[in-house]
Write a structure and sequence with these properties.
The complex is a heterodimer of chains A (171) and B (764).
Chain A lengths: L5 H9 L10 E9 L4 E9 H10 L14 H12 L2 E5 L2 E2 L2 E8 L4 E8 L7 E6 L10 E8 L2 E7 L5 E5 L6
Parallel strand pairs in A: 1-8
Antiparallel strand pairs in A: 1-2, 2-6, 3-4, 3-7, 5-6, 7-10, 8-9
Chain B lengths: L1 E4 L43 E11 L4 E12 L5 E7 L26 H8 L7 E7 L7 E4 L2 E10 L3 E12 L3 H4 L4 E5 L4 E6 L5 E2 L2 E2 L3 E2 L15 E10 L3 E4 L2 E2 L2 H4 L2 H10 L6 E4 L1 H7 L7 E11 L4 E4 L3 E9 L2 E9 L6 H20 L7 E6 L4 E4 L2 E4 L11 H16 L1 H6 L8 H19 L14 H4 L19 H20 L2 H15 L6 H10 L6 H8 L7 E11 L4 H14 L4 H9 L4 H4 L6 H4 L7 H13 L2 H8 L3 E9 L7 E7 L4 E6 L10 E8 L3 E6 L14 E2 L7 H7 L6 H13 L1
Parallel strand pairs in B: 1-25, 2-14, 21-22, 22-24
Antiparallel strand pairs in B: 2-3, 3-8, 4-7, 4-11, 5-8, 6-7, 9-10, 10-19, 12-13, 14-18, 15-19, 16-18, 17-20, 20-21, 23-24, 25-26, 26-29, 27-28, 27-30, 30-31
Helix pairs in contact in B: 6-7, 6-9, 7-9, 9-11, 11-12, 12-13
Classes of the chains: A alpha+beta (171), B alpha+beta (764).
Chain lengths: 171, 764
């Protein structure tokens, strides 16, 4: 489900948010693990931005850290994150399993995922548009790590999908 | 791998690209009589003055504010002014005088439900209604409004060193901040029918006219805030009689608006070193249960400020304490509704006092008599002597750790804005970073003095790495106008704060940096600095050429990724045949062997020369690693030519390491190398960024030690914002991903839950 924008537009123009203070940035670090043939992912979001987005979506949420022992709620939050993070390796779509999350006092929350085993393919198609529909200032970045190679791509309101090719194809 | 060398002269490397070290001359404005080349105000520096006398009336029934203001504008410039420009920031919410909605990019996919669509049709007219503008003689003056700006025509040009007074009568509808946002507005408490007003940017305000751009003429679009001329204010605020008002400046009529008990408490607070309640929660709760029918007028005076703001509500709890700054007392105060407790009564005023004290140390002594923090849900916004801050606990009175740190951080930040830009009055509408970035930097210093290990969100170099790496197509240089910045928070808050932190910790050192930064603050307090004034002062006061740093960090989007490419180990050839030939033999024995040779040792039982003694001649029998008489004679001759110093050098058994570095990210930074030796001792080597001046991509350096090195690590203290730590080590070390770190320390309970288990265990 995509989110409210006009309200966020008005808020954006008129105020400076308490904790986010114009944060609007999410970051994903994904690594292909050649031992397990899985992709291991950490998605980092501004806690306050994410809470705000969810509440404007109509989801009743407290502070994320209050769910550190609530498995059902964690999965629910994870589902929201995964709606906006997709990776295709070659023609195969990655299926991610939620591993856990951490809320940091710096105001960031990390969500951890691991994919089901997937055959390595150097061509990657990625979508990472979390909170972008909610706030057009949002900018997300993905760094994909494959052995020593690192590729970083940016995702924006008008660029929610990125395709790139890894140069290293075997360990 | 180890190499043996004899000393030789190395030819200097060539490659004369100095673009990144070129001086900033062309980028900076030419120094002149108003702003000199040292970065200080020039001998003819001037600035305008705008004094205000304002009578305000709050209509609590209609949520309107009505004002009559008399502005006295003094032209200190050398120019004749034929018209005056004023800012009408509330027109950003005007139905007829605002482009804000029009310039917002939208797509149909933004509208997902009926709520979205309703908001599209939602109209609120929050723009100024200018009723009348009259001259001091009562004559109507001609004016025209261009969205958020208003031009007033003068009967005759305003000559240098003369003043003009005029009166503006206006009103506007106050915005519901919780529904449509805003830096100011009201919060409505539905259950009890009360309002909490935080009112700012609320009156027509004189624009800045200066040597840099003439009249400040950028419209208020929302992101770039404002800059205003300094002046003196006398403001009378009429509100319902049961309201408590906090405002920029000092209260002039305590005896009229406060009870005897409140005045006693306030008197006590003026000398207290901990908060004293002037209005208690019990009193505030009592007040919010009824509504006064009469009004009271609160009178405030503020001297040499660039703006005026206030907050008013019958819900306010009010506390205060003293904070001495170099012998001068500052009354630190907080105003908050009961919904802010328990956080606010415990922390707010102490945070205000700590911020005033700490910023005064790093910048200038806080010059105003009061400093105020007002609780306003969700936001953080600053004005002279007063700011509006979020940090609201849950309705049940509990709060998360994050909320606590969020509240602490926002109060320190917004109180800190008193210094940047309220006193060091940069133009926010042009350069957001000049106040947000500098303020975020000092905020970091202040947070670290509040609590050891404070989890500051911005400041430390490593925290900006995610933002700076990779695709640069949609991030902006810091030197970008406020309204055109991609990634506002990282660009205008995080990156400049990080850059200053790097200057302080790594490039200049704390002593040089602190002196230069304080010099900038002292030079430009109560004046209008520009970026060039900061850049020049930091160099002028430190004797450190920082042009390359400003260029890289402020004018480009390059990032730091320096790799430790390779390390080669060398030792001096002593010439001693006993030692050198033994080393050569050892190296020969340890060299890699071809697989065929290894297998042949077993498969070929006997070769011809092993069977036939006549085959091996001199060459076959000669042991080139054996020391002979000629070797010894030559060594003796060699020693005779050596001085004592040469001999000592050869005997010292130095280990030489040629280390090669590559600048992958493009941003020039110093090289900080931690060298660990085989005996587990270590040494830190710091090489200034100027090592890149002849080659901005590849450089090498030779280090010598008396001990053999076991490892080297680049940027071991995470001080350069290096975006890839995976190429910083020799031998190569895999840096764990966040996922791997999480897996290593995975636990399903938070620290408080663990503590509960500990307590339960202790009970058993």
């Amino acid at each position: 489900m995509k989110l409210i924008t006009l309200l966020s537009f008005l808020v954006l123009l008129g105020t400076k948010n308490l904790q986010a203070h114009e944060y609007h940035f999410a970051f994903a670090e994904a690594e292909y693990n050649w031992q397990t043939n899985t992709i291991q992912v950490t998605i980092s979001v501004s806690s306050h931005d994410f809470e705000h987005t969810l509440s404007e979506q109509g989801m009743t949420v407290n502070h994320l850290e209050s769910y550190s022992n609530d498995k059902m709620m964690q999965l629910s939050l994870s589902d929201e994150v995964l709606k906006h993070f997709k990776i295709d390796m070659g023609n195969e779509h990655c299926l991610f399993a939620f591993q856990g999350f951490e809320v940091l006092n710096t105001g960031m929350t990390h969500f951890y995922y691991e994919s089901q085993p997937i055959q390595f393919h150097p061509e990657i198609k990625a979508v990472f548009d979390i909170m972008i529909d909610h706030n057009h200032e949002q900018q997300n970045k993905l760094t994909f790590i494959n052995l020593k190679e690192k590729v970083t791509v940016a995702f924006l309101f008008n660029q929610k999908q990125q395709e790139f090719k890894l140069e290293t194809t075997k360990p | 791998m180890k190499y043996f060398i004899i000393p030789i002269l190395l030819l200097p490397l060539f490659g004369f690209s100095q673009s990144k070290f070129a001086q900033l001359g062309e980028q900076l404005p030419t120094p002149n009589e108003y702003r000199n080349a040292a970065g200080a105000p020039g001998h003819n520096y001037y600035q305008q003055k705008a004094d205000y006398k304002i009578d305000l009336r709050l209509d609590d029934d209609k949520q309107q504010i009505h004002g009559v203001e008399t502005i006295t504008y003094t032209n200190n410039s050398p120019d004749k002014l034929t018209y005056l420009w004023l800012q009408l920031d509330q027109n950003m919410r005007s139905l007829e005088n605002s482009d804000s909605r029009l310039i917002n990019v939208e797509k149909m996919e933004d509208f997902h439900n009926i709520g979205d669509v309703k908001r599209l049709f939602f109209d609120f007219d929050g723009g100024f209604k200018i009723e009348e503008i009259t001259s001091s003689s009562g004559q109507k003056m001609t004016y025209s409004i261009n969205n958020t700006m208003m031009r007033i025509e003068l009967d005759k040009p305003l000559a240098p060193n003369t003043s003009v007074s005029f009166k503006v009568k206006w009103w506007y509808n106050i915005n519901d901040r919780m529904k449509i946002g805003g830096r100011s507005g009201y919060e409505y408490f539905e259950q009890e029918g009360n309002y909490l007003y935080t009112i700012a940017q609320f009156f027509p305000r004189m624009c800045v006219y200066n040597d840099v751009e003439g009249w400040q003429n950028k419209q208020f679009l929302g992101a770039g805030e404002f800059a205003l001329p300094f002046g003196d204010y006398e403001v009378n605020i009429t509100v319902p009689a049961d309201h408590i008002v906090g405002a920029t400046g000092e209260l002039q009529n305590e005896s009229t608006v406060l009870s005897a008990e409140q005045r006693n408490r306030l008197k006590k607070a003026r000398t207290a070193d901990a908060p004293v309640l002037i209005v208690t929660q019990e009193e505030a709760e009592k007040a919010e249960k009824s509504k006064a029918t009469g009004t009271k007028t609160w009178k405030f005076k503020a001297t040499n400020v660039r703006d005026f703001a206030f907050a008013t509500s019958r819900k306010f709890i009010w506390d205060a304490q003293n904070q001495a700054v170099n012998g001068k007392n500052v009354l630190c105060m907080s105003y908050y509704p009961k919904e802010g407790n328990p956080l606010w009564e415990r922390y707010s005023t102490k945070l205000v006092a700590h911020t005033i004290k700490t910023y005064s140390k790093y910048t200038i002594d806080y010059p105003y008599p009061v400093a105020i923090s007002v609780h306003s849900k969700w936001i953080g916004m600053e004005y002279p002597m007063i700011c509006f801050n979020g940090g609201r606990p849950e309705p049940d009175g509990t709060y998360s750790e994050q909320e606590k740190y969020g509240m602490w951080g926002v109060i320190i930040h917004e109180v800190g804005h008193n210094f940047f830009p309220m006193i060091i009055n940069s133009d926010e509408r042009q350069w957001t970073w000049m106040d947000e970035g500098l303020n975020t930097f000092v905020q970091y210093l202040t947070e670290q003095e509040w609590e050891r290990g404070y989890p500051s969100r911005r400041g430390p170099a490593y925290l900006i790495a995610d933002y700076m790496r990779g695709d640069k197509s949609h991030i902006s240089p810091i030197m970008t106008n406020s309204e055109s910045i991609w990634q506002f928070g990282n660009n205008a808050y995080g990156k400049p704060a990080t850059a200053l932190n790097i200057l302080r910790e790594t490039i200049m050192g704390r002593e040089l940096f602190d002196y230069a930064f304080k010099t900038y603050c002292e030079r430009w307090a109560f004046k209008h600095p520009t970026p060039a004034d900061l850049f020049r002062t930091m160099e002028d006061a430190s004797a450190v050429d920082l042009d390359w740093f400003w260029r890289g960090w402020f004018y480009t989007t390059e990032h730091c990724d320096i790799s430790l490419e390779s390390v080669k180990h060398f030792q001096l050839n002593t010439g001693n045949p006993e030692k050198e030939k033994a080393n050569a033999r050892k190296a020969n024995d340890e060299r890699d062997q071809f697989i065929g040779d290894i297998r042949n040792k077993e498969s070929i039982k006997e070769t011809v020369n092993e069977r036939d003694a006549d085959i091996d001649d001199f060459y076959a029998k000669h042991d080139k690693f054996e020391v002979d008489a000629l070797d010894q004679k030559e060594y003796a001759d060699f020693q005779k030519k050596l001085s004592k110093e040469d001999q000592a050098l050869l005997d010292a058994n130095y280990h030489f390491y040629e280390v090669n570095f590559k600048n992958i990210g493009g941003l020039l930074m110093p090289l900080i190398i931690r060298v660990k030796f085989i005996d587990d001792s270590e040494e830190i080597i710091r090489i200034p960024a100027e090592i890149w001046r002849k080659d901005e991509v590849n450089v090498s350096k030779v280090f010598h030690f008396t001990k053999e090195v076991s490892s080297m690590r680049l940027d071991p203290y995470l001080e350069t914002a290096d975006t890839d730590l995976g190429n910083n080590s020799w031998p190569s070390v895999d840096v764990p991903t966040r996922f791997e770190l999480f897996k290593e320390q995975k636990t399903n309970e938070n620290p408080m839950q663990r503590q509960k288990r500990v307590e339960e265990l202790n009970k058993q």
